[in-house]
Amino acid sequence: MRKHDVVYILKDGTKPDELRYSLRSIEANMDHGKVWFYCGQPEGLIPDRAVPGRQEGSTKWERVRFSLKQICKNDKISKKFWLFNDDFYVLAKMDSTKPLHRGLLQDHILDVEARHGGAPTGYTKQLRKCMDQLRQAGCTTLDYALHVPMLIDREKMLETLEMFPRCPMFRSLYGNYAQIGGDFFKDVKTVSPDKEIPEDALFFSTSNKAFNGEVLRQIRERFPDPCKYEAEYQKKVDDDGETVGS
């Protein structure tokens, strides 16, 4: 059986720092097929396949959706693939493909608005739009936009994007429209560089500001050696035929 590929959608100018450790975490803890970079390719990092191209769209979400459509039409990518962000880390052996969500969209909306004095934000307005469109389509309204890898069926995601062409919350649209179900899981993204990463954590995610300080020290400690997707590793293999750590 073909293993599921891993796909990163990268904007031009993406720095390699977080992505480097994301790739190391995949190599250490995840049984996977090919690793694909779409659009961007940070210096010093070498995926199995790189697809260059300019993302079309006036907003971040439009550009991501454009790239996602191209990915879903690419039959060289496994039928189901893991969608990763460059700041996702797999911290322990991953032996399940079961989907994860953080409960109902309505609950997440209320939690976010409570932190803003009960007022709607631009983000919660988009969440409400997503929830309303799902309800109109007769779908469930779970929130799948937590910061962990998501296994996506190319055909079903393409159908989802065509069904909901003007809403940016593609993870939650897909999860509910494709009826993937899954288990509740707390979001693992941190915005603080002082965060203590739990020893038993399966996943972790950083923000740009959080990839620093204590968080960076802990990630480096977990993944100290270059992996096969780094030029440094490949140069060593070319030079002496040995793998890092051998």
Verbal overview:
The chain has 246 residues and is an alpha/beta fold. The protein has a single domain, classed as Spore Coat Polysaccharide Biosynthesis Protein SpsA, Chain A. The chain contains eight helices and ten strands. Strands 3-2-1-4-7 form a five-stranded mixed beta sheet. α1 links the parallel β1 (5-10) and β2 (35-39). α2 (60-72) packs across α5 (154-163) and α3 packs antiparallel against α4.
First-residue to last-residue Cα separation: 30 Å
CATH topology: Spore Coat Polysaccharide Biosynthesis Protein SpsA, Chain A
Main sheet summary: 5 strands, mixed
**Strand and helix order:** EHEEHEEEHHEHHEEEHH
How many separate structural domains?
1
Which features characterize this protein?
three-stranded mixed sheet, five-stranded mixed sheet, 8 helices, 37% helix, alpha/beta, Spore Coat Polysaccharide Biosynthesis Protein SpsA, Chain A, single chain, 246 residues
